[in-house]
Design goal:
Blueprint: H1 3-15, H2 18-25, H3 29-43, E1 48-50, E2 54-57, H4 59-87, E3 91-97, H5 106-115, E4 119-125, H6 128-136, E5 142-146, E6 154-160, E7 163-168, H7 181-185, E8 190-192, H8 197-208, E9 217-219, H9 222-226, E10 236-239, H10 243-246, E11 252-256, E12 265-270, H11 278-290, H12 292-307
Parallel strand pairs: 3-4, 3-5, 8-9
Antiparallel strand pairs: 1-2, 5-12, 6-12, 7-10, 7-11
Amino acid sequence: MQLRQLEYLVALARERHFVRAAAACYVSQPSLSAAIRRLEHELNVPVVRRGRRYEGLTPEGEVVLAWAHRILAERDSLRQELSALRDGLTGTLRLGVVPTALPTASLLTGPFCERHPGARVSIESLSSADITHGLAEFELDAAMTYLEDDSLRRRLPLYEERYMLLTPVGGPLGTARTASWSQAAALPLCLLNSRMRNRRIIDECFAADGATAVPAIESDTVAGLYAHLPGGRWSSVISHAWLHMFGVPDGMRVVPLEGPAHGPRVGLVTGPDEPPSVLAGALLAVAREAGVREALDALLRTYLDADDH
């Protein structure tokens, strides 16, 4: 068995098409097909279900694919570790981030790149489910996500979301020291859409106060949400973590919402490999020293204190 055969199988499972998989591996389609047939012969099991076109993997093929991901990840980890001993840490850290944590990613990636100037970071915005899949399939080295999934094995809490009302200074709650969720629900709102985990969480907070939010504007990105806030028409419920990137638009202020002091935890997770890859281990080391929770809480206090003066 050759590692190249495993690479071809991984590409075929990803592309779901022999020609596209061959192109991704920079080989001809007959060469890729022949290599996978040799793999089947060597393992004495059918790996690919074949018809007039690619029809998926057999049950045995799914097992082989899982091992292929693991073996190739171990190969990459070996290369990274040897390279780190020789030249310092190199390679590309593949980091998945849930959209609502993207504004805080630089609190980790900045120190990581400063400590390891020879390494690069590739960030991908993904749902929680896609992150779980990407880690399990060794497609990601690490991820920033909600820590509600018990299947995530290695978890480092970074911060707890704190929800604030961002509202125009001249609006109904523009001078309030605090606001209830039901008061916030009565405002013209711009919120993330219901496919986002953050939106489902705050909907539960609205419901606990006997209210239902009916936003006039919905977005699937934090940036899209913030784009509608200047101008004094809309309010929004935000995570305090977003203040790190977007701050408070002119003419608006942050009002604490009454209710739970903290929302769900956001943290750094790594894949099932033990020990973690060199790149993932290096990011974990940075994260343990970064003080993300303290930095975000201090930033929030700055905005709240500014309103008191």
